[in-house]
Amino acid sequence: MTQVPSQDPTAANPTEDSPIQARVPQSGTAGLNPPGTAGLNPPRAKRGGLKTFTALQNNRDYRFLWAGNVAANGAQWLQIFTIGWLVFSISGGSALHSVAVAGIRSLPILVIGPWAGVLADRLDRRKLLIAAQFSLAVLAAAFALVVASGRVEVWHAYTYMSLAGIGFAIKQPLRQALVANTVQRSDLANAMALNAMGITSMRLAGPLLGGILIGAAGFKWNFFFEAGLYVVMVLLLLPMRTPYRQTSSTSRSSNLVASLLEGLRYIFGNAVMRRLTIVNFVRTGVFMPLILLLPVYTQQALGAGVGTGSIMIAVMGIGGFTATFVMATWGFFAKKGAVVLITLLTGSIAILMLGISHWLWLSLAMMLIMGLSQTHFIVSNQTLIQTMVPDDLRGRVSSVWHYESGLIPLAAVAIGVVADRVDINTALTGVGVIALALGISFAVRFKDIWSLD
User: Fold this and answer.
1) Can you give the CATH number for the domain in which 233 is found?
2) Would you give the distance in Å from CA 113 to the centre of its chain?
3) 177-202 pLDDT per residue, tens
């Protein structure tokens, strides 16, 4: 497997139609030690042996960020798991409310996400993330008190998740941009893989912890615990510094709209960046709605219940965790651009096979492939983008990358409408065919992506 490269990936892949392509190679300094910071990181790890935790070993500040992200990811998955079951309980068993209340958290990204990226490029990213995490902690604690009062209603849950969605929209581009601000450039791919490992591990641990707490103490303690995990991240961010943050050329007195348009021009005016963004949006529309549709799929396609659905989520999580461990330890199985295109194809085939399948063993195998494919895609795509983007545009580019999160509920609703008119198998088969056709088109047309590393 190829190891994490240290050269500038854009040097051999100029973008002919980019009006600001001259800015891209400047990002080659984004991960180099700035003056006066040579002693901030310990010596590089020796060659030989497993290199899974290289970014953590070499970068003091990334250790704080990574540990904080693990805590925040645990809070996030605990929240999603608990709110669904709480609303299912207080709504008299409404599956619609149970799914919608979890999905509504992503909608604020559609309005707030791009502006959060603008703020991330104008203000201190660390301080802004501390403020966002502290606000989420207060919000979770307040909702826990409402639940503890015994007077919680469905509208309380929708209000809580809508407000939490605002915090989620603000923190997402900050957390991604801060990875590049806390690691040496040669450690960026490993750091991205470790970040994904924290997400996939908490995807397994969060619901497990939530189930235990609900059974032992009731719903309220889950939200108190969620608040505590957010506080943990705040405490870890306090001693963290950003030695690889470059001085922003974006004036704070400049127009916010102009700043936003500058970021959009960079993304859509640069051929490689535009194509990486497009394939990520396709990945979102194909892969991500599956989690929200899994209860329907489990019941209609497999004739099974909640237990089987939980097993399928766990298998997908195992695939994702395995992928992050492999990438962090041995690198990517091909050039990162090739990984993006190949895993989009394999994930699309997995969706198509899920649409065909009525057999549990086949569906479980496809969920494993989905976990492997999606995680490889995310890490390779994010690493390429974060390596190329100039630091003063990093927040805006990250916010557009995460904008796709807000489209997940809409994509799930669209697929669900088709499933209601026909059935879930037909709906997923159609999605798989469309995704595979797009994937093949990208593989043929985006020849410059294949060579990115």
Assistant:
1) 1.20.1250.20
2) 14
3) 899 999 998 899 899 989 888 888 88
